[in-house]
Amino acid sequence: MPGEASPAARRNATAALILACAAWGLSFVFLKDSDTILEAALGEGAWTSACWIVAVRFLFAAALLLPWPRVYRAVTRPLAGDAFWLALPSAAGYLLQAAGMHDLEAGTNAFLTSLYTPLTPLLAWLFLRRRPRVRIAAAVAVAMAGVAILTGPTGLGFGLSEALVVAGAFCWAIQILLIDRLARRHETAPFTGMFFLWTGLLALPGLAFTDPHAAFAALLRPELQLPIWGLVIVSTVLTLIVLVHFQPSLDPSRAALLYVLEPAFAAVFAALLHGEPFEGFKLAGCLMILLASVIAELPGLHPHPVGKPAAER
């Protein structure tokens, strides 16, 4: 098993994951634009456009990465199996996130998604027997209060879209724990390529009752090219290669703390590119969720013990 990551490796991983968070923050704008264009073109519900977005995003990404000889020659049956297990919660998370985007602003979606930060230590306790401290319970309470505030003064703003995104946050927390356990076993590029392929394939059954001709015609529309290819290249291929390569150098809880920067970047990009307001109760709710992440992770962060990956601490 790999030993403890060096301080330089942890610094490099931290910088890389911050850049990944910026790319993910931009992905919420790309997702919103893609969903709006596809929904208008297809005239169907949120799940239809969500399945098309996830399938196209990850199958295109796999097509860009897997054909390289050094990549596909390194694909083995154990690698493909581990990539499939990682793709299961990931595909669910991406579908839930894209479907929830249908009736939400990009910034709101991003901050609800960030709930995976306090959820990651809780799931590590349940599945990896890593008992959380009292601060984790406090972080969850603060995060739930932030969600309640984010939905509006009456609390009536919490509907199906918000529930879908929160369910997706559970999937992201599972993904973080699985990356820590599975990614370190394999080379980055082939493992990421197979992960892309499985994720895209898992979204295909949702397209069974759609009109493929109308969908392909919509995908060729000029106004969809920037958000779709931005999702594929910037927010998928480059970002997830960085994630798979660098996250194993950090404890998964420390990585989850860094990922809380994602909604902050998303809010900035949504304000700059979409003119979304972020004030009043929305700002207060988002700050509560950020505070929950800080409470959950800042005290007692430790590097991997020598000879053990983080998931087996």
Report on the structure:
The chain is an all-alpha fold. It has one domain. It has 14 helices and no strands. The chain starts with 6 loop residues before the first helix and ends in a 16-residue tail after the last helix. Residues 301-313 have low confidence and may be disordered.
Briefly, what is this?
The chain is mostly helical. Helices cover 75% and strands 0% of the residues.
Structural class, by secondary structure, is mainly alpha
Using the alpha-carbon principal axes, give the shape: globular
The whole-angstrom Rg is 19 Å
How many domain units?
1
**Could you state the order of secondary-structure elements as H and E?**
HHHHHHHHHHHHHH
Strand count, sense and closure of the main sheet?
Answer: none
Strand coverage percent: under 5%
Total strand segments? 0
Describe the SSE topology.
Layout: H1 7-42, H2 46-65, H3 69-72, H4 77-100, H5 106-113, H6 116-128, H7 134-150, H8 160-182, H9 188-203, H10 212-219, H11 222-246, H12 252-259, H13 261-274, H14 280-297
Helix pairs in contact: 1-2, 1-5, 1-10, 1-11, 1-13, 2-4, 2-9, 2-11, 4-8, 4-9, 5-13, 6-7, 6-8, 6-12, 7-14, 9-11, 12-14
